[in-house]
């Protein structure tokens, strides 16, 4: 098997000897023996570690020394070793330097970086019913200036709960989400057709912009799931998307382009409207008005305009009846769901195509499963999707090696003990499962692309620690779109493997962004089967 691509990724990120640092980083003899977590199979590693009585003070926690007032801020400027575009590499480097837990002050913010899945488990079991994370300042500021509510992504406490519960009663309900399968199958079929006719006859490489078309696929999917309308932006006769679709796609690009610069850089926009800020503001205005018009379009549909493939009650119709929500809340929930659902799912799909291309034996195994369950040209139905277990395992394994998000964070209002150290309240605790998923003490043979590790009945390779790879997060504030995204990915991946033999002549890197952007040095080749 060729796994040079994966070894290259891991070696580059961790350094050849770094993967053995493991549990030695910061662990002391006063550390109580961990209790084993049961019920997850023969995974590597063990359960929660918190033992407050023997914990060491926060001051003892290892970490880079910073300068007074600005901490290690310079490390993340052109004067330092890390670039914002490759911020995820700094997470690997800090692990290499300090081990499984470290603290760092960047500017005026104090971060604790957590890599041990036992600590990740402890954190999520402690976070309580209304978890908080670091506010996205630029997003909060733009909403304030536009007179809009803060939205689910930035809200905390009771208000977050209200917004979240209104939407999750539909979006995380397996029965309700599986009612989207027929329409998602149709959207994926449109994507496959677009690609079939959008390849060079000589090289079989795409002549269409694959990333852009995948974004249309995920936009079409999330709009159909939330609003029950079809944009048709992948259909053959639609050369140019309609104005609202175009506005959403354009503003989403501009939004992503500017958001991370504003969130990660100094907040100069608070002092004067920088060029990046103006672009960001414009993108938000464009986004909100296009999403608003789509919501109107959905509500104004007559019975005869309803798509028979769509569920009878859309998510929008469901939340619009909730008395506790204002009309602005409803618009913001839908707007955020559509936004959060585009880039994340599109990039995850690109990574899946890449891992299939680089692991031909896995691709063949997927094809055998798809042909057995769906046939060589059949539709992916709800029942079929349940049986595509290897497809699901491939999606999970891909998220381990090429995650759409490298980091999540939590802010607790009480002290917690992690890796034997007391962590005070209000510190930003970063959960770095991008790194954890590459560590051999939690994932056996991490440099091997082995979807089998996620199959319940497979005994050829031990199961990873259950908290080592969590692409959608954990707990009450985990991704609300998880089921929808998994369904979208499962359907399209199955259809792609059913229709094409996939190859790729380049290497995949990632660019750190709100969702990690694929940076491929070569091209894909899709040969029709
Ligand atoms: C492969 C695709 C996706 C990935 C990998 C992903 C991953 C994530 C992650 C890691 C979080 C943070 C969880 C935490 O902190 O514990 C999150 C939050 C969120 N995701 Fe996703 N996501 C994906 C697709 C979607 C889709 C399709 C939607 C919309 C339908 C969506 C909507 C959201 C929202 C609204 C939040 C914030 C939830 C809250 O604050 O309560 N995501 N996602």
TrEMBL record:
Its cofactor is heme. Keywords: Heme, Iron, Metal-binding, Monooxygenase, Oxidoreductase. Pfam families: p450. SUPFAM superfamilies: Cytochrome P450. Heme binds at residue 479. GO terms for biological process: vitamin D metabolic process. GO terms for molecular function: heme binding; iron ion binding; monooxygenase activity; oxidoreductase activity, acting on paired donors, with incorporation or reduction of molecular oxygen. The keyword Thylakoid does not apply. It comes from the Eukaryota. The keyword Chaperone does not apply. Belongs to the cytochrome P450 family. This is Probable cytochrome P450 49a1. It comes from Branchiostoma floridae (Florida lancelet).
């Amino acid at each position: 098997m060729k796994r040079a691509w994966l070894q290259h990724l891991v070696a580059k990120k961790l350094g050849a000897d770094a993967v053995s640092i493991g549990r030695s980083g910061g662990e002391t003899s006063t550390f109580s023996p961990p209790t084993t977590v049961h019920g997850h199979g023969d995974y590597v590693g063990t359960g929660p570690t918190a033992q407050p009585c023997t914990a060491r003070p926060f001051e003892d926690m290892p970490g880079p020394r910073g300068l007074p007032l600005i901490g290690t801020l310079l490390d993340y400027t052109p004067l330092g070793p890390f670039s914002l575009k490759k911020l995820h590499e700094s997470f690997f480097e800090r692990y290499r330097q300090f081990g499984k837990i470290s603290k760092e002050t960047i500017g005026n913010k104090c971060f604790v970086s957590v890599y041990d899945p036992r600590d990740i488990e402890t954190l999520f079991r402690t976070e309580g019913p209304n978890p908080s994370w670091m506010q996205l300042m630029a997003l909060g500021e733009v909403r304030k200036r536009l007179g809009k509510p803060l939205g689910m992504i930035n809200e905390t406490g009771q208000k977050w709960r209200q917004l979240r519960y209104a939407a999750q009663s539909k979006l995380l309900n397996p029965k309700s989400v599986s009612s989207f399968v027929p329409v998602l199958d149709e959207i994926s079929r449109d994507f496959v057709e677009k690609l079939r006719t959008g390849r060079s006859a000589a090289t079989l490489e795409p002549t269409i912009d694959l990333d852009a078309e995948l974004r249309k696929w995920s936009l079409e999917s999330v709009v159909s799931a939330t609003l029950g309308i079809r944009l048709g932006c992948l259909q053959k006769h639609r050369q140019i998307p309609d104005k609202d679709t175009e506005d959403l796609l354009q503003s989403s690009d501009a939004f992503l382009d500017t958001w991370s610069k504003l969130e990660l850089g100094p907040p100069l926009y608070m002092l004067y409207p920088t060029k990046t800020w103006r672009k960001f503001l414009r993108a938000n205005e464009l986004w909100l008005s296009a999403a608003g018009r789509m919501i109107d379009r959905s509500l104004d549909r007559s019975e005869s305009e309803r798509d028979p493939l769509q569920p009878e009650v859309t998510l929008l119709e469901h939340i619009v009846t909730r008395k506790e929500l204002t009309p602005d809340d409803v618009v913001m929930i839908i707007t955020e769901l559509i936004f959060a659902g585009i880039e994340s799912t599109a990039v995850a799909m690109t990574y899946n195509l890449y891992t299939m291309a680089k692991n031909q034996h896995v691709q063949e195994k997927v094809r055998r499963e798809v042909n057995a369950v769906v046939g060589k040209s059949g539709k992916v139905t709800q029942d079929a999707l349940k049986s595509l277990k290897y497809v699901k395992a491939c999606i999970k394994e891909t998220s381990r090696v090429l995650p759409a998000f490298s980091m999540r964070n939590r802010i607790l209002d009480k002290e917690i003990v992690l890796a034997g150290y007391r962590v005070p309240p209000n510190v930003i605790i970063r959960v770095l499962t991008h790194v954890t998923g590459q560590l051999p003490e939690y994932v056996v043979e991490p440099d091997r692309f082995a979807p089998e590790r996620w199959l319940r009945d497979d005994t050829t390779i031990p199961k990873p620690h259950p908290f080592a790879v969590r692409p959608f997060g954990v707990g009450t504030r985990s991704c609300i779109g998880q089921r929808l995204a998994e369904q979208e990915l499962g359907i399209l991946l199955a259809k792609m493997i059913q229709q094409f033999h996939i190859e790729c002549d380049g290497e995949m890197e990632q660019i750190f962004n709100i969702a990690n952007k694929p940076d491929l040095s070569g091209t894909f080749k899709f040969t029709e089967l």
